Structures are given as C-alpha cells and as structure tokens.
Amino acid sequence: MARIRRGAAKPAPQFLEDDPSTGYLPGRAWPTVRYGLATLLASALLVFAIELIVRGDFFGTVDFFLQPFKPGWTTIIVFALVLVGLDAILGRSHQSLMIVAPLTLALAFVGHQKSHYLGDPLYPTDFLFARQIVALLPLLVRERPWTAVMLAVGIVGGLTLLVYGWRSWRRRVPILSRKGRLARLALAVPLLAFFVSIMDYATFSWTRDRLQIIPIMWDQKENYASNGFALAFAMNVPMAHVSAPPGYTDKVLDAITRPGVAASVPDQKPDIIVVMSESFWDPTQLPGVTIKPDPIPTVRALRSGSMFSPEFGGMTANIEFEALTGFSNAFLPAGSIPYQQYVRTPTPSLATFLKSEGYRARAIHPGTNWFWNRGAVYADFGFNDFRSEETLPPMEKRGPLASDAAMTDEIIREADASDDPVFLFAVSLQNHGPYEPYRYYNPTHSVDAPISSWARESLLSYAEGSADADRGLQRLIDWAKARQRPTVIAFFGDHLPPLGPVYVETGFLKDNVAPRKEPSADAALEHHDTPLIIWSNRSGPVQNLGAVSPAFLPYHILTTAGITHPYYTGFLGALREHYRVVDRNLLLTPAGEATPDWARQKQIDPKINDFRLIQYDMMFGKRRSAPDFFPETVDKLVAHTS
After folding, report:
1. Can you tell me the mean pLDDT for 85-97?
2. Residue of 597, 451, 495, 373 lying closest to 120 (CA atoms)
3. Which end of the chain has the smaller Cβ count within 10 Å, N or C?
C-alpha cells in the first residue's frame, strides 16, 4: 500500500524538461540544455587531453584550437555525438564517457610513444601486429624497468577506478526513458553517418573543405598535426584498401614495353645467400663519436654501396617485402604493412623464381614464425621451408637474443647439407633494439663521445652488436672462398637503429627519429642509407652501386649470379638505368638528381607508372602481366591455408 501511495503521489514526469530519466533531478530548469552543454564540455576536455598527450606540447595544443572551424572543433562535435549515441545505448547519461575516455586516452598515449620511438603516428593497421609489440615488451622492460613498473601500477589503478566509477554511476544515475534514448539516437546517428561520409579522403567533399579538414595522406606526420589525432586516425582506416591506379586496363598493361630477356641460369648454378642484418649501420657516422677498434672492418672493406631503407628504426617487414619481391612500398598506402595486409595469395618473389629453376628456397630467422606474419608470407612467396625459433635447434644467445654467430652456423650448415643449389634468406635478431646499457658483459670496444653516460653505454651495446654482425659476414666470406660451388652473398641493414637519445645528444638528429619528409635528398640519404655488400666467390665484391632501393636488390643479386629474368633483371634492370631510389617521397637518378614529392605531381614518369601498374596487377589485379614478366607463376595459384 505504501508503494502505491508513493507512486500515486509522484508527479508525472515531463519528457526532456523535468524527466528524472535524463539524469537530472525533477524541477531543474532546461535539463536538455544542461545535458548538451555538459556533453560538449566533456568532449572538449577529452579532445584537448588527447591532443596534449599525443603532441606533448601544451602551447601547440592550444594553437590547434585557437581558430574556429578548424578540425579541432569538428572533432569535439564528433566526440559529443559519439557520447550522446552511446549514452542512448547504455541507458544512462554521461556513462559513455567511462568507455570513450579510457580508450581514446590510451590510444593517444600509444600514439605518442610510437611517434617518439619510431617517428610515425599511430595507424589503424598497427593493431594488426599488436602481438609483435607484446613480444618485445621484455626488452623494453629491461631497458626502463621503473617506467614499466609505474605504467603497470597506473594501468591497475586506472582499471580499479574505472570499475568503481562504473558501478557507482549505475547505482546513482536513473535509467533513461525510452523516449530519451530514441531522441538521442535520432540526433546522433544521422549526424555521425554524415561525418563518416565526408572522411573518404579519395573523393572531394565540399563540407570537409569548408571545415578545413584537408587529408594530407602523402605526409602523415603533417596529417596528424593539422587534423588532430582522432580525425587523422579515422581517415587512415580505409587505407587497407588499395585502389587501382589510374589507367589500369588491359590495353594499358599490354602497352608496357616487354623486356627482351628470358629466364636463364648458368649451367653451374651458384648458391645465393642473402642476410638482412637487423638494424645494421655504421655507428661511426655519428658526429663526435670515436669507436675503437673499428666495429665493422669487413663491411668497410667490401662495401658495394648503400641500401636506401624506406623505414627508420623499425618496420623490418617492409624492407623485406621490397627486397624479396622487387616491388615498392611507394605504391602502397602510407603506414601499411604488406606482410600483414596484402600478401594473402601466392605472390611472385625471388624464392618463387629460383625454386622454379631447381633451387631449394629456404628462409631462416631465430625469432618466432608468427612475427610479422612471416610463416604465412614466406609460404606465399614460394619458399620451400622457413626455419624459425620453433624449428631451429636451441641457439646460443649473445645478450638477450639469439646470436649472429649461431645464425651464421645455421646458414653454413644448411648450404653445405644441400645437394641442390640453395637460395637462403636469413634475417638476424641479435642486434634488435632497444639497446640498454651493459647489454653485453664482455664488451670488446670502447666509445668516446661527449654525451651522457647512459647514451654512451647504449651506443656501446649497439656497437658490440654491429661488430658481431660484421664478424658473421667475415665468416661467411671465408667459408665461401673455400667452396667449389659458386656462391653469391648479399648483406645489408634493414634500417637505421632506434638509438633515440643518442641521435639527439650527438647532434645527428634534432629528434629521436628522422622525419618522414626530409628537407633534402642528402638528408634523406644520410638518415636512410645502410651498408650494402654484394659479393661473389668468383668475382669478389660488386662496386660503386651507390644508394639503391631494396626493390632493386633482386636485379643486383641475379646479375652478380649470372641469372636473367624478365622482371627482376629485365624490367628492373631497365628501370635502374633511370632511377636508383624509388621512395614514397623521393625519386633519385643514378646521377643523383632528386625529384621530391613526385607522387603529388600531375605528370608521373611513365616508367614509374609502369612499375606501379605491374605491381598492382600482380598483387591485387588480374595478373595479366604474369606470362610476360613472371612466367614461373602462370600455373594455377592456390591461396595458402595457414
């Protein structure tokens, strides 16, 4: 009876004015306006906090919001609409903030860390290799243990507060009425759909133009700085899809000049061994640094040229992709990882071709086979097998990782045990960053540099690893010299090491990482060139190659081995006469003439356009060019089942 009387005495609520289901007490004036203003304020504070975390600069963040109709204000509106829509779904006012805020702030923190260590913003596709990041955590913890402890405490404390706040909010805030929820959805859903439609960077949008949201997909660092973290991140979601280049038709493909080169190998097929040495570089290039003794004497004596890496400090798989396929990352969306996104069916590579000529194609890497999706990718590239941590015998460690010496032992053992000619592609692991001080208990070098003690010891750790890689190369050379079978060895670094503060303290870089868009071709070469050696036990080292993109590596290897192929030595050989570097931001001729920002120009060199068309056709298209350029792939293609 008491319940009935209380219910009968309760005044009938009025929707959107004094309905307690809106989250405000009955009788309060303009609850709808209050709810809207509170949501906008929460959205503004959240967006400001996100930008502050990502940028790490208070005044720079303030500048981002100073003028009206800039992307920052658009982001605030979008966030407010997301909060309103989620409130309707969750059924309580402002509870959506407990989901959106932790998630976006965590993304902002990860984005700041990635930019700090690798120089790139956070892309949606980065989550495709989250497992790799987890696998590297022990190294990161070893380098900065107290930072790791504080981060762990912060995560546990934050989750505890979040659970407490969630339960407390649900007890104290009334449930929204059905009408209140429908009204929120009716407002949020159409407007959010409108904003999603204008985020397609590939098409012009008058509204987006008026809001001053300009997709700068060719310069992602500027894209994130200009449009803010959230909008730039959203605009990168569609980049996993690769659109056909303009003019991709059968007629245009048929018009590409066919090389007058057929596939051929010598009667005595040479073994081909390619070693991609993790983060291998010449640390004596750092200003004011003296390392004794010389950490890389073998490389210095045999150096053929430089590998122009499309990456800096990481993203090894992208260099692998170019070196094995002869294709280029320049024609793929910025921030994409072909190993993770695009290699899903048999794809032509050096392994595919050489296996068709009777070679045993094998890959070796002392890490796990799932890292960078290598197990599946190597199968699609045509390798006969891939020996990884799971299938290799226990390998001696040098520091925390499998040693270069142990990997060299495996290369020699594999080659000597094979009656067939071998193509061995090996990826080292020992000198992977971070380079914590005192990584090796028995250093054989000394570093003299006017830098902090931490930076000097970190550089010493790196120099020791580089010296071990150099010794591994010398062992391969000595072994190959004593062989009867012709042997070609290629050795190169995948990218400059992630030395971080060492670069800043020595004055090599202004920041921990090199900018994506360099002010000059010379700066790009300085920050992206790694040593390259191509050597034969019949003719010695190849000389005077200059800087070359990894995509041209198949041409130089096969030419040294006396092997020809319609694409690898024919098409790439003809292209190499005009360009030695084909990068997303730079074309470089053999004479050193540079064309920056070439992809933004209205007219693109037909030779580069043919390169792009063949790559698209073989990776995403109808493979119409396969009979002429990749005849070994014309058999029936079957997708891998890994």
Report:
1. 87
2. 495
3. N
